[in-house]
Amino acid sequence: MPTDSYNWRLDMPLLHLENLRVSYPQLNDRSLTWAVDNVSLSLAAGERLGLVGESGSGKSTVGRAIMRLLPTGSRVEGDICFDGKSVLALSPTELRAYRGEVVGLVFQDPMTRLNPVMSIGEHCIEMVRAHEPHLSRHQAKQRAVSTLEAVKIPKSRWHQYPHEFSGGMRQRVAIALALLLNPRVVIADEPTTSLDVTVSAQILQELTRLCHERQMALLLISHDLAMIADYCDRIAVMTEGKLVETGTTQTVFTQPQHDYTRQLLRSALHLHNADMSSFSATVATAQSSKPHVTAESSSPKPLLRLTNLHQHFTLEINPLERLLSRQDTTIRAVDGISLDLYAGETLGLVGESGCGKSTLCRTILHLLRPTAGTVEFLGQNLTRLSRRQLQRQRRHLQMVFQDPRACLNPI
Q: Sorting pLDDT into bands at 50, 70 and 90, what band is 65?
């Protein structure tokens, strides 16, 4: 369904939802529950609309309904129109083109979009050539590299796989895939949840720029009211599957009409004020809770000590490319880290996505063997332990993963 097949007019919305109702498959139709109930929305070319609400309010369901990505057996009522044509009436061929060429979707969980056995480069090549088969592989790669660089993924990571990227970097790849075909609408479902504030701002600024330059519409689904206020022209508020308020960003924030909207704003303001007022007290408490050393006592020994810890990875490229390339193919994910952690102490490790935080944690637990340096726990050098000895020590060293599915067995 090429976009030029539409007779697009400036006097009509680009995307329009009319009395949309969605119910997921249920065992008993008599107890029908609407996840989305009678929602009507319009989105114009170049407009940025923020869809906000609590978890379970139906925000993501709206995004998946627009893309027709609901589970088999879901019940949908009402209509979804793009340029005046019903999306619900599209043929399989039209629907395939609609997804990607017309509307791009950024999932909250990037691994919903990424295939673990395909390299990042192959993801991009497959996406471009599936929709534009007339392009050569070289042309497709040029476009993909440019798009990846726009979201701060360097060309040197082209041959790597999703598991070799941090959670934030995987999300950036997912955003790049949504932008590859220059869609008319981008639906971003919590697109910056796993990104640091710096990269988050850069990507949202890039999306804002594209909206202006390409007249691309953006539906930004989020619970972050501050982000919505910064980047959206209008706001739509949902709760319990219903749309309770819409309006310009300034109007909704300054003159909220619905009790739920006022509650959201009060909560956001309360959290902000609480964070700011408690910041100094938190710092003071943290300083006072450090291990106390008196003149009579010896210095406390650290529970965990890292000494000049390194974790390096070598990019896998073909021998000819390695011979001709003068670029360094080593990724220094952790490069000479030394720190001590004492009993009863809480240490915060911060930095932008891809800076090595998660890799450092995996190296401490020896889920990744360090390239160099030492890890000492209770005075014992973990780098010298056998596999069985290391297993016994792991009872005392536990990790909470960023992605819970990295810890949970689906079967």
A: very high
